[in-house]
Write a structure and sequence with these properties.
Layout lengths: L13 E4 L5 H12 L3 E6 L2 H12 L8 E5 L5 H15 L4 E4 L15 H29 L2 E5 L3 H4 L5 H21 L5 E7 L5 H9 L3 H10 L9 H13 L8 E4 L14
Parallel strand pairs: 1-2, 1-4, 2-3, 4-5, 5-6, 6-7
Helix pairs in contact: 1-9, 3-4, 4-6, 7-8
């Protein structure tokens, strides 16, 4: 780890990452572990979370620097247990990354039920509010920070994804409002908005496509950099925000490979 540029940058800091057994959350967990942090991996999948922790422990300064706490972020008591369990283990919290969420299949508003939208609000938005609420009393004591994972499409929109875009737009707006409220307490609150990041969910979409090769190629061609992002790249951005961006709060950090740049053929007929 001596040659890793992230090594020791956030040493001994306590970091909670929701939805961190796979995908972007897992990428964040790996970067913070390599930076010397004490990382709490959280997921509603016990088997997947246990495997992730076993692998992350191999990168940690000490094995006890990585632990797993099961949490379904739709359950308020689970979130309370995640926070209290972290305090019991490590004595404080320095950073909370609200990553857990879901993108439902694309379809027009006519085909979304009100109940589906309410359920997605619970998962993608209310869970973020609750985790912030329960963690902030502890973050104020450490002058810590919160990073909420929003989405590029919260800014630019997305075809047949009205419910998802609405929840992620709300996450970005909640971030700005809380940044104002918490600045007097020394707590910074920022968001990160990924574009196309190659995750297990992306691979599932590729596998399910009628033409998997075309699906993958289209995903890569959406960026001016001609590729999808990697989960570790999002993790490094989050590490920078937590460890180095000490004069940054209320900012939405887009990591998109330039997907939002330039004109394109966007007419739907």
């Amino acid at each position: 780890m001596e040659n890793d540029p992230t090594s020791q940058r956030y040493i001994d800091k306590v970091v909670i990452i929701t939805g961190s057994s796979r995908g972007i959350g897992r990428g964040c967990a790996e970067e913070f572990v390599k930076a010397g942090s004490k990382v709490v991996v959280s997921s509603n999948d016990l088997a997947e979370g246990t495997r992730a922790v076993a692998e992350l422990k191999l990168l940690a300064r000490q094995p006890e620097y990585v632990t797993f706490i099961a949490c379904d972020v739709r359950n308020q008591q689970d979130i309370k247990t995640l926070i209290s369990g972290t305090i019991s283990l490590y004595g404080g919290i320095d950073c909370l990354i609200n990553n857990a969420g879901w993108h439902p299949p694309h379809k027009p508003i006519d085909d979304f039920s009100i109940e589906e939208f309410r359920d997605l609000i619970d998962l993608n938005l209310i869970s973020v509010f609750a985790a912030c609420k329960f963690a902030l009393p502890h973050l104020r004591q450490t002058s810590g920070n919160i990073i909420n994972i929003a989405s590029l499409v919260a800014t630019i929109g997305q075809h047949y994804a009205a419910t998802y875009v609405a929840t992620k737009g709300a996450v970005a707006s909640l971030t700005k409002a809380l940044a104002i409220d918490e600045a007097p307490h020394g707590v910074r609150i920022n968001s990160v908005s990924p574009g196309n990041i190659y995750t297990p969910l992306w691979q599932e979409a590729i596998d399910a496509a009628a033409d998997p090769d075309k699906c993958r190629a289209d995903g890569e061609a959406a960026q001016v950099m001609a590729r999808m992002g990697r989960v570790e790249e999002v993790g490094r951005l989050c590490l920078f925000i937590a460890a180095d961006a000490s004069f940054t709060t209320g900012v939405d950090h887009i990591i998109s490979g330039g997907a939002e740049l330039g004109y394109g053929n966007k007419a739907k007929r």
